[in-house]
Amino acid sequence: MKAIDPANLSKKENYRFLTETIIPRPIAFVTSVSDEGVLNAAPFSYFNVVSADPPILMISIGKRGDSKKDTSRNIVEKGEFVVHITDEKNVQEMNAAAANLPPDESEVERVGLTPVESTAVSVPGLKESQVRFECRLERHLAFDGKEASTDVVFGRIVQYHVDESLMDENGSVQADLLRPIARLGGKDYANLGEIFSIERPK
């Protein structure tokens, strides 16, 4: 077993090791709105649920130099955002929205996505998503590294939206119908693959 001290690695080397080993990762496809009213959309794979009560999710957003990325700045300033689950139906749009555009240009318009009105927040969602979470900013943390800084936002989910075709008679979302996409290392992604069950010990 090889021991590696992350303090001896560069940002790029740490990033590569972490993204190649902490896998698979769900992909948050996030919409946010700037002070100028520009609807931003961007994907983040440093993302997961944190708590069910209250319902909280987390997104980690690396800074670009000393500047916040559009998504992070919008969330911190506006306090609202929408997270969409990336699946086989919207993965190409998600990838296209990762392009580095100036703050006054909307990825939603550039990619041809369809905004839909939200229920509990002012930020629109995306019609191309089968599952989305309307969120209000719960907490923002900042971490400084040797070469870069990172913003971490925690969002309280205030509304769920789910395509009814994904749900069984008990109201459970069926993973094989959602067909989520996971992020791996480098340029690699993965679909759901084989599903198996294990009984938990009592």
Please provide a brief summary of the model.
The protein has 5 helices and 12 strands. It has 202 residues and is α+β, with helices and mostly antiparallel strands.
Which percent band covers the strand fraction? 25-35%
Described by strand count, sense and barrel closure, the largest sheet is: 7 strands, antiparallel
Radius of gyration: 17 Å
Task: Walk across the major sheet and give the strand order.
Answer: 3-2-6-9-10-5-4
Query: What is the fourth-level CATH superfamily?
Result: Electron Transport, Fmn-binding Protein, Chain A
Average residue-wise pLDDT: 95
* Class inferred from helices and paired strands: alpha+beta
CATH architecture: Roll
Cα shape: globular
CATH class: Mainly Beta
Low-confidence stretches: none
How many independent structural domains?
1
Order of helices and strands: HEEEEEHEHHEEEEHEE
Could you describe the 3D structure shown?
- This protein is α+β, with helices and mostly antiparallel strands.
- It has a single domain (25-188), classed as Pnp Oxidase, Chain A (Roll).
- The chain contains five helices and twelve strands.
- It has helices spanning 11-21, 70-78, 91-96, 107-111, 175-178; strands spanning 25-26, 28-33, 39-44, 47-52, 55-62, 80-85, 115-116, 125-126, 131-144, 149-162, 182-183, 189-190.
- It has a seven-stranded antiparallel beta sheet.
- A hairpin with a 2-residue loop joins strand 4 (47-52) and strand 5 (55-62).
- 29% of the residues are buried.
